[in-house]
Design a protein that fits this description.
alpha+beta, 20% helix
């Protein structure tokens, strides 16, 4: 009897998986992190955008305001005030 419940449950899970739609890729969530694609707005702040469209560069890391970005990256203020985004221009 227990094996019957396991079998029926497995069939239901596989069946739902077959008829479900593939997950759509998520857009940017507005929180800059390493690997985020960004544009620079009129106030010189980094704003996360989708990597599928046009963007200025990719964030290497987000650091505190009292730190400096490594050579080869450009520093921009995070639009949300979370720190400084070290951006590698594209």
């Amino acid at each position: 009897m227990l094996l019957g419940f396991v079998g029926i449950g497995s069939i239901v899970v596989v069946g739902l998986n077959i008829v479900s739609q593939p997950a759509e890729p998520r857009g940017p969530d507005g929180l800059i992190s390493s690997g985020s694609c960004v544009v620079i707005d009129a106030t010189q702040a980094a704003v996360e955008v989708s990597c599928d469209g046009e963007y200025y560069g990719v964030v290497e890391q987000l650091i505190g305001f009292d730190m400096t970005c490594r050579t080869g990256t450009e520093s921009y203020r995070d639009r949300q005030g979370m720190g400084t985004a070290c951006v590698v221009p594209s």
